[in-house]
Structure formats: C-alpha cells, structure tokens
Amino acid sequence: QVQLQQSGAELVKPGSSVKISCKASGYTFTSYDMHWIKQQPGNGLEWIGWIYPGNGNTKYNQKFNGKATLTADKSSSTAYMQLSSLTSEDSAVYFCARSVAYWGQGTLVTVSS
Amino acid sequence: DVVLTQTPPTLSATIGQSVSISCRSSQSLLHSNGNTYLNWLLQRPGQPPQLLIYLVSRLESGVPNRFSGSGSGTDFTLKISGVEAEDLGVYYCVQSTHAWTFGGGTKLELK
Known about the structure:
- The complex is a heterodimer.
- Chain A is mostly beta strands.
- Chain A has strands spanning about 5, 10, 20-25, 35-40, 45-50, 55-60, 70-75, 80-85, 90-100, 100-105, 105-110.
- In chain A, the strands form two sheets. In chain A, strands 2, 4, 5, 6, 9, 10 and 11 form a seven-stranded mixed beta sheet that branches. In chain A, strands 1-3-8-7 form a four-stranded antiparallel beta sheet, with no helix packed on it.
- In chain A, a hairpin with a 4-residue loop joins β7 and β8.
- Chain B is about 0% helix and about 50% strand.
- In chain B, strands 2, 4, 5, 6, 9, 10 and 11 form a seven-stranded mixed beta sheet that branches. A four-stranded antiparallel beta sheet of chain B has the order 1-3-8-7, with no helix packed on it.
- In chain B, a hairpin with a 6-residue loop joins β4 (about 40-45) and β5 (about 50-55).
- Chain B starts with a strand and ends with a strand.
- In chain B, about 30% of the residues are buried.
- Classes of the chains: A mainly beta, B mainly beta.
C-alpha cells in the first residue's frame, strides 16, 4: 500500500534553512508527482508545489518561489523540500502528498530563536 | 490562479442531521480531458487530511455512503446525510485541474 513517511519535527532559528523529507513506498516513485502543502497553526491548507521525480520537473505556487526548493532522490524514493531564510511565518506543519488520496503524517517546523 | 470559496466557514449540527457545504470556483474546473478534478477532504484534529470524494462525486474506498458530492463547472456541494460523531472536523474542497488550490475550510461541530 502507498505510504509516505515524513521526517521528524524541526526547531530552527530565524534566517536559517531546513530540509524535510518524505520517503515513499508501495508504488513506483518515479511515476507520480509529489506535492507539498503548508498548514499554519489553526489555519487552512496551502499548496506549495510539486515535483515529478521521474525527471525532476517542478512547479511552484508563485508565493513560494524563492522560499521552497523541491528535490527528489530516485535511489531512495525520497522527496525533499528545503525552506530558506526562515521567519516566524514559516512555522507550520508541512505535508507531502501523492495525489489528494495519499498524505504523509506531516512535519512540524518551528522557527524560533 | 484559481480561487475556491467555501461556505459556510462553520457548521453546527446535531447527530443525524443532514448538512451541505458549498465550494465555488473562480473558473471552470473542467479539464480538457473531460474530467473535473474537484475533491473533498476531511481533516480531524492532529491528523493529515483524508480523501472523501474525488472527481466531484466519486466516493473514495472505505468512505461511508452518507457522504455525497455533486456539481459541475464552478459550483460544487458536499452533502452529509445524517451526521455522525466521527464526522466532526474540518472539510476542505481542493481542485487539481489547474495545479492545486484549497478552499478555506468548513469546521463541522456539534450543536
């Protein structure tokens, strides 16, 4: 069955970067887009972008251009999202999702000095 | 960019009551391949969202048939025919015709 296992919670300082992971299993990793979604505390869902691991193509929500960078490692079936120049506005739970049907458990990123 | 307007933001219901949630899109969600990629999710506290309805009206496997979806073009509705306690949480519509966009969410709570 499709499973997406995300990396653990991160506490990071303002101005720094963080890279979170999403390890996929139960399907052919290179054949499906992987999406990333942001959810700030008490707020709704916001689409960040997707990556197609088969060829590395990406598409971003314009709002996240320069903030998020999506990559994928075919050898380990793992997708990554790096967030840069972190501020308190980046404190959120981040989900990976392979289609709307399959979601990771979420990774909490807290930006605090 | 597509904007999804979801109403109401909050819904109070008693057990057994039927309720509906509306999702309106700023542009048609009909894809050139003939499919309309409008989906409904439920997010319970502390959990990732789970898929309830895809392609407007198709029930995801394992989802109770008290959930139903309808609509076309830009106007869509999720109906719960007889709310149960396990249905409480936040409902989101999400379109995947033009990249992805989420509605603002509807919190279903007990009256």
